[in-house]
Amino acid sequence: TEYNRATEKLFKVIIIGDPGVGKTSFIRRYVQNAFRGDYKATIGVDFALKIVRWSENQTIKLQLWDIAGQERFTWMTRVYYKEAQGCIIMFDLTSRNSFKNAVKWKKDVDSKCFLEDGAPVPCMLLANKCDLQQREVDQWEIETLCREHGFIGWTETSAKDDLMVGDCMRFLIEIMMKYN
Ligand code: GDP
Ligand code: MG
């Protein structure tokens, strides 16, 4: 009988953005399919591992780095970003400030971290908390920022209602598979 050796890939993905935008909630939803309303700030960095059965003979391990957005930790980001193959920059649709800061986070990543061939790390922009009504950011503004700052794409998400969480991660994995 034929023996098919399963292949396994490991990707490091960093998740960044201002405090409170929903990074930890997003990861918890993606990895554990759970959500909590109470807010406990991440200190430093948390790790989560998600194993994805990509195809019959391809397994993907995602090492998710949940990085605290506090100003006092930003000097550490170079260490956290090291050898990341994918990046998620998240903002909160109900916080205009967190949207503006998405550009700062993108510049921070692009100045400190590159793929092996020197290309920028593929970065996806996530507009979280789309379940809430009181939006402070329009779609066309997101579209423009996404294009002008070299994101691979963007989507609205809700960690609370589980909207687009798995879908956007699949999109990122597809791109990381092409690059690696
Ligand atoms: P982090 O600091 O970026 O890790 O943000 P957290 O994941 O700790 O979330 C901050 C707060 O926003 C918490 O109270 C969450 O329950 C809430 N939150 C996170 N994601 C969503 C979402 O998609 N919708 C709503 N309504 N609240 C969310
Ligand atoms: Mg957190």
TrEMBL record:
One of its GO terms (molecular function) is GTP binding. It is found in: Membrane. Signal peptide: none annotated. GO terms for biological process: endosome to lysosome transport; phagosome-lysosome fusion. GO terms for cellular component: late endosome; lysosome; membrane; phagocytic vesicle; trans-Golgi network. Keywords: GTP-binding, Lipoprotein, Membrane, Nucleotide-binding, Prenylation. It is a lipid-anchor. Belongs to the small GTPase superfamily. Rab family. The small GTPases Rab are key regulators in vesicle trafficking. This is Ras-related protein Rab. It comes from Daphnia sinensis. The chain holds residues 16 to 195 of 231 of the full protein.
